[in-house]
Amino acid sequence: MANVTASMVKDLRDKTGAGMMDCKSALAETNGDLEAAVDWLRKKGLSKAAKKAGRVAAEGLIGVAARPEAGALVEVNSETDFVARNDQLKHFVKEAARLALGAEGDLERLLAKPTTSGAPVDTVLKELIAKVGENMSVRRATILAVSQGIVATYVHNAASPELGKIGVLVGLQSTADQTKLSALGRQIAMHVAAAAPLALTPEHLSKDVVDREREIQRELARQSGKPENVIDKMIEGRMRKFYEDTVLLLQKYLGPGVEEDFTVGKLVENAGKQLGAPVEIVGFVRYAVGEGIEKGSSGDFADEIKKMAGH
C-alpha cells in the first residue's frame, strides 16, 4: 500500500473539492494513484469534478506568435515565478514562439533553430540557465494553421501581448473579411481560455475519456437502485450533459449579452450569416502553464524540470 502523504491529500483536495478524510480514503483505496482517486471519489458522489485539471503546479510562461493563417504556442517552464518574470526569459520565450512558426510546432526542430544571436534555441536556453542559476525547459510547442481564414490568438494573465499563463489558438476557416474574422476568433479564444474545452466535437473526444466518464456515470446511476434499462437512459442524458460541458461547439458561450442556451456553435453559425460567408472552427489549442505536472513538493517539481531540461 502506498504511503499517503499530506501533500498527496492536498493535491487531491485541490483537484476535486472533496473533504480531507474522503481524499485520504480515496488515495488509500487506489494505492496513491491520483487519477484513480479522482474517479473513486466521483463514483462515491463525493466530487463534482468531471474535467478539472487541478491547480497549476509549474511556473513559467506561454509564448504566442501568429501570422494571418497560422499561430504557434510554446511553453517554457522554470522552477520559480521570480525567474518567470525575468526579462531575459521573456525575450527568450517570445523568440521561441516566433521560431516555432517556422518549425511547424515540432519541438526538436524548434530547439535546433538558430536565434537572432546565431546560436540554436537549445544553446541559448542552456546559457540562460547558467546565468540565472535555475533549471528551465522548453516543455512543448505546437502550431495551428488554416488554408483560408485566420488563426486567432489570446493570452490570459498577460505579462505582455505575447506572453502569459494561458495561451490559446483558434483556427477559423472562411472567405469572410479577415478583420471581422479576427474579432470573432478572439471572442472564441477568450471563451476557450475560460471554459477549457477538451475537444471541438464529441467525435474529437478520445475514446478513453468517453469510456471513463460513462463508467463513472453508470456507477453513480446504479446508486439510484433503478433497473439497468432505466440506468441506460439516465446515462445517455448524463453523457449529453458531459458533452455540453466539455465540447467547444456545444458549450454555452461565456461572452456577455447572450441568452442562456446560446452555444459557441450558434455563435459561429450566426457569424457566418452576418459576415456573408460560412465560418468553421477547424481546431483550437489551449496551453496553461504547468498543466499535467503534479507537484508533491518543491523538490519533486525541481526534479521534473531537471528531467525535462536533460540534466
Structure report:
- 47% of the residues lie in helices and 18% in strands.
- The chain is flat, with a radius of gyration of 22 Å.
- The chain has helices at residues 6-16, 20-29, 34-43, 81-84, 87-102, 107-112, 121-132, 178-195, 207-222, 228-246, 264-275, 298-309; strands at 59-67, 70-78, 136-145, 149-156, 163-164, 166-173, 280-288.
- The strands form 2 sheets. The chain has a 4-stranded antiparallel sheet with strand order 3-2-1-5.
- The two termini are 31 Å apart.
- Residues 49-57 and 296-302 have low confidence and may be disordered.
- With 311 residues, it is α+β, with helices and mostly antiparallel strands.
- It has 12 helices and 7 strands.
- Among the domains are: 1-49, Ubiquitin-associated (UBA) domain (Helicase, Ruva Protein, domain 3, Orthogonal Bundle), CATH 1.10.8; 59-198 and 282-309, Elongation factor Ts, dimerisation domain (Tetrahydropterin Synthase, Chain A, 2-Layer Sandwich), CATH 3.30.479.
